[in-house]
Each structure stands twice: as structure tokens, then as C-alpha cells.
Amino acid sequence: MSCNAAELLPLLGGTANASAAASYLCDRFTTVTYAVDNTYLLFSAYLVFAMQLGFAMLCAGSVRAKNTMNIMLTNVLDAAAGSLSYYLFGFALAFGAPSNGFVGRHFFGLKNIPESTDSGTFDYSFFLYQWAFAIAAAGITSGSIAERTQFVAYLIYSTFLTGFVYPIVSHWFWSVDGWASPTNTDNLLFGSGVIDFAGSGVVHMVGGVAGLWGAFIEGPRIGRFDRSGRSVVLRGHSASLVVLGTFLLWFGWYGFNPGSFLTILKAYGSPGGYYGQWSGVGRTAVTTTLAGSTAALTTLFGKRLLAGHWNVIDVCNGLLGGFAAITAGCSVVEPWAAIVCGFVAAWVLIGLNKLAEKVKYDDPLEAAQLHAGCGAWGLLFTGLFASKHYVGEVYGLDRPYGLFMGGGGRLLAAQVIQILVVFGWVTATMAPLFLILKKLKLLRISSEDETAGMDMTRHGGFAYAYHDEDDPSQRPSFMMRKIEPTSTTPSPQNGGRNV
């Protein structure tokens, strides 16, 4: 939505004073537009940050009680350590424009922010939103290596992931200068660019693949597989926390996906119409909801057929798998296609969990299967089902769209390239880091600490510890009994007093 003083001038009489008035009104209108769009972006950033609480609750409920304090602390530090590393290096590497196609070169330490360049307008709200995405990727990884990882390893990998690994990927696919970005109109990959609107690949695959290598290099938890190699379920201690975390993540996803429009005050078509970017925001929220809900129901009935019971933990993971999958194409697909996305995502997650058991891979939160596996499916889904109409609206150019929608295979080819590149980059950076940490004996805790639980051995006590004297059931019985009169009948021996 823009204001043109030349168009406004005839309406004000065409005089010199009218020209000044037209320019004045347009300047004020532009200021209001920036204010509304930045307020929308800040609100979305707050929603995405609230997902950290969802991750914390989900992780806490999915581990055993003896490791609750440990996993909660790592979630706090993902955000805290990620704040500094993304401020110092990450944002500049991701969006420091102008730059080349591979890495950003400006805005280290937020120098010269706010600033408007040929590549766009950069303000503090944009930094905050992108930081919330970066720490989300680190939070995904922490779930994969839970219950057996040294605390110092969390600090090292979280700083490295949010300050270097993730920013490079986001530059490639989200910066206007990125070599595979759909907004790099000077050099579109396959004439299309990659459509990863809110990060099925950039966020979920990066976090999931990093977690995959961390968990693989560490090995399974003690007791996860018996001596004959059969899988032993090590259940998390609180389904209530898992459900709470899932709903918080669901809520935050409305900032994650719809918020990725970055602006909202933009009309599609003629000025003054009812249809605009606000409609795209609403549609994206709808596709997100439908994909997650479909995946949850598919997982519910699928696991009932396979395992013979209804399991709320499986349903929650299925729901999140649907969300991770729809994140790439949420803005460019029809609502009915989102149902297809969620249905397939559920079976991708179920299948990968079965495969993980076969190869004795242990991920307490199914994070690699859920985020990397379903994220990869989401990228393929976008290449198959992206709508011509919505691709044109969101990206503003006539370009390839989904194969099944008649758009040819060029978008799908770009999506496949992204899957391969993200997997290769994260493998080349994070796998050596975990191997070095293992070599230096900084990765995995001792078997004694793992058996006892890190809360007691590393963090000074259990998360649910209390003092026995505060528990009424532990008090001696003579302290609990109220002394009552033995009789209410007056006795002549004591002068009529009750005994």
C-alpha cells in the first residue's frame, strides 16, 4: 500500500499549496504504514518467543523427572546464549546487506540499525523477529540430546548454531541477496528460487539435522535398548507438561507462520479493496491450523491401529510434525492442500520413528524425525502443491509453482536442492563440532551421573524436591491427632466438670 502525491494532487485542486499538502499527507501516511507494520512484526516476534516456553514444557515433560532441571536450564540458555551470538554475528551473517549470495557482511553488533538500503528497511523489530527464529532452531537440537549431554556442550553448540550455522542458511534462502532466495530477482534458482516461507528447511531441518548428529554421535541413553537390541521405552515423567508445551507451541506458531509476511498493511489489487495482505495472513493461519490438526488426528488413529492404544504424547508429536511440514508452504497453498500436508506428515513421523528403533537411534523428543523429516516433506509438498495465484501474490512475480497444480517441475527441483544443501551444510559444520566435543570428553556425562540423573549430580537437587516437614502426610501420628474430651457427661467426682 503506497501513497502517490501526483495522484493525490488533482483531488486537492492542483495549486502550489495543494502540492505541498499532497506531499505532506503522503509522508504522514508512509510513517503510519511503517508504524503499523513494525507493530505487527513485534507482536509476531513475541508470539515466536513464547514458543521457547512451549519447548521448555515439552522437553521437561518428555524426559524423566531426574533430568527436569537440566533440560529446563538448557532451554533458558538457548535463548540467553543465542541472544548474544545472534546480536554479535548471526544477524549480520544472515541479513547484512548489501552482500554476496553466500554470506552477509554488514550490521555486526547491530551497527547502523535502523537503516534503509536498496535491499530493504532494517529495524530493531526485524532483528528481534529473526532472533526468535534462531533460538527456536537451537531449542530443537536440545531435545535430541537430552538426558545425557554435558552442560558445557549445550553452551558451545547453541552459540555456534545460532551465531554461525543457522544464519548462513537463512541468508541463502531468505536474504534478498541469497543465491537461492525467491526475492533475489537478479538470479533466481531455476527461474523460481526456493519457497520456504517460514522455515521448514531453514529452521526445522537445521535444528533437526543438528540434533540428529548430536544424538547419533553420543549414542542412546542407558537402558534405551536391552542386551538383545530390543527397544525399551523410557517414558517422560509428565504428559501434562507435554500437552501444555504443545498448546503453547501451537499458539506461538501463529506468529511463526503468519508473522513471516513481516508486514500486514498492503493491499492486493485496487486500493480501497477489502482483500489484501491481511487476507494472506489469515489464510496462512488457517492452513497452519488445518495441517497440524490433520496430522494430530492421523497420528491418533494410525498409532491406535499399530500399537493398540490411544496415546496423547504421540498425538502431540504428530500435531507438531504437521506444523513443521506446513511451515514452508503455508502462505502459497490452498486450505484443502494443507490437509494433505498434515496427513502425509503424520505417516512420515510414524515411519521415521520405526526406522529409528531399527537402527537403535535414540531421540527423547523425536526431534530429528519430527523437525528434519517432516520439514523435508514440507519442502517437497510446497514444490508439489504451491498455487499459482498465491505464489504471485506473495512473491509478486510470474514464476513456477507447484507440479501438481500445473506449474512444472522447476519449483520442486529448487526445493530438492534446498533439502540437500541444508543437510550437507549442517552435517559439515555440526557433526565435526560434536565429534570434537566427544574427543575432548566434553559431550556426554558419565554413566554414574546418567543413572543417578543430572538434576542431583550436576544441578544440586531435583526439580520437584521438597522438605519432608512440609508434607502433612509425613508428620508423626501424635502430631496429627486433635485431642478431644473423653466424655461430655458431667461427673460428680470432679464437681460437674467435663472430663
UniProtKB/TrEMBL annotation:
Q: Name one GO molecular function term.
A: ammonium channel activity
Comp. bias intervals (Polar residues): 485-499
UniProt xrefs under PROSITE patterns: AMMONIUM_TRANSP
What ranges does the record give for the region Disordered, renumbered to this chain?
Answer: 471-499
Q: Does the keyword Signal apply?
A: no
Task: Supply one GO BP term.
Answer: ammonium homeostasis
Pfam families of this UniProt entry?
Ammonium_transp
TM ranges are 40-63, 84-108, 128-146, 153-174, 194-217, 238-256, 336-356, 368-391, 411-437
On the tree of life, the source organism's domain of life is Eukaryota
Compartments, record wording: Cell membrane; Membrane
Keywords associated with the record: Ammonia transport, Membrane, Transmembrane, Transmembrane helix, Transport
Q: What is its main location?
A: membrane
Q: How does it sit in the membrane?
A: Multi-pass membrane protein
Record-level GO cellular component terms: plasma membrane
Alphabetized InterPro entries for the sequence = Ammonium/urea_transptr (IPR029020), Ammonium_transpt (IPR001905), Ammonium_transpt_CS (IPR018047), NH4_transpt_AmtB-like_dom (IPR024041)
- Family of this protein: Belongs to the ammonia transporter channel (TC 1.A.11.2) family.
Write the protein's name. Ammonium transporter
Species this chain originates from: Chenopodium quinoa
